[in-house]
């Protein structure tokens, strides 16, 4: 082979080797860039009530403005939302009423399918409520007590006529929980097991908005109303309502057809089990997230009073409660959020 041909061959081989090295380096760099942020969009569960939507937006603004993530929401009920984080289709569930499905929740934790990060708050309640004036009256509005001896769920049958069903006047009406919520399963069992079906119809509103509208319409008119509700809500923040007593909670009674009060609720924040590796900064932030029933009720009352959206209410919360949430995140993240809002 001539020296010219040998030199040409050497140059070709060198060029090919250089291209291979460059391609490998670029490929490695792209892989490294991809691995550096494996989670770009954080998906929240919307299980169907106002307070969880507010938490989603508060956390969402912080993640978008402070950390640079995108966010999205998947609507559903309690069972589907819990299933969603256990399968990884949903990343974050901001307000799990753990007592509503405690056995399933504990199993998912024990199996490592979900990870509990924080206790959002636990000063809450749920069950059958009446406007307080039904029991005590309201002298300022000229309302006399309608059911002065009404204290427990078991007292309801003697007052069925007070809560007469407008569509079937031979029975009273209990406004139940929302279809798809575990609370609905509990209440329907109570309705049968307590014999309330003999004197009351169980009416299912189609949404939490419809349930709230039925109660507030009655309250504004000073009329009797009985039905499912929970705290915190904007209604509990604005109106005087009373939770009817039930048997004190016990595991035995709860397992026997829910024949007692709802168990004490830990409203937790949980995530799908890959998120700590995919987005450790997100899980660190959410591990610090904590509010209270009073704080949430105040924010929801602001939303109602001002006709504000969830995002507008979240911005109000972040401005009004700056000392609270800035402790959840690093200082540089807090500054970015404050500049954005």
Strand order of the largest sheet: 3-11-4
Order of helices and strands: HEHEHEHEEHEEHEHEHEHEHHHHHH
The CATH architecture of the largest domain can be named as: 3-Layer(aba) Sandwich
Q: What would you call the structural class?
A: alpha+beta
Q: Indicate the overall shape.
A: globular
Keywords:
globular, three-stranded antiparallel sheet, single chain, D-Maltodextrin-Binding Protein, domain 2, 341 residues, 2 domains, 48% helix, alpha+beta, disordered N terminus
Can you characterise this structure?
The protein is an alpha+beta fold and 341 residues long. The protein is globular, with a radius of gyration of 27 Å. It has helices at 3-36, 50-67, 78-87, 102-110, 132-136, 182-193, 208-221, 234-238, 251-255, 275-278, 280-287, 293-306, 310-320, 322-325, 331-340; strands at 41-46, 70-75, 92-97, 114-121, 125-131, 164-165, 168-175, 200-203, 227-231, 241-243, 267-272. The chain folds into two domains: 41-124 and 265-340, Periplasmic binding protein-like II (D-Maltodextrin-Binding Protein, domain 2), CATH 3.40.190; 125-255, D-Maltodextrin-Binding Protein, domain 2. Strands 3-11-4 form a three-stranded antiparallel β-sheet, sandwiched between helices. The longest helix has 34 residues, at 3-36. The termini are far apart. The protein has 15 helices and eleven strands.
Fold blueprint:
Layout: H1 3-36, E1 41-46, H2 50-67, E2 70-75, H3 78-87, E3 92-97, H4 102-110, E4 114-121, E5 125-131, H5 132-136, E6 164-165, E7 168-175, H6 182-193, E8 200-203, H7 208-221, E9 227-231, H8 234-238, E10 241-243, H9 251-255, E11 267-272, H10 275-278, H11 280-287, H12 293-306, H13 310-320, H14 322-325, H15 331-340
Parallel strand pairs: 1-2, 7-8
Antiparallel strand pairs: 3-11, 4-11, 5-9, 5-10, 6-7
Helix pairs in contact: 2-13, 2-15, 12-13
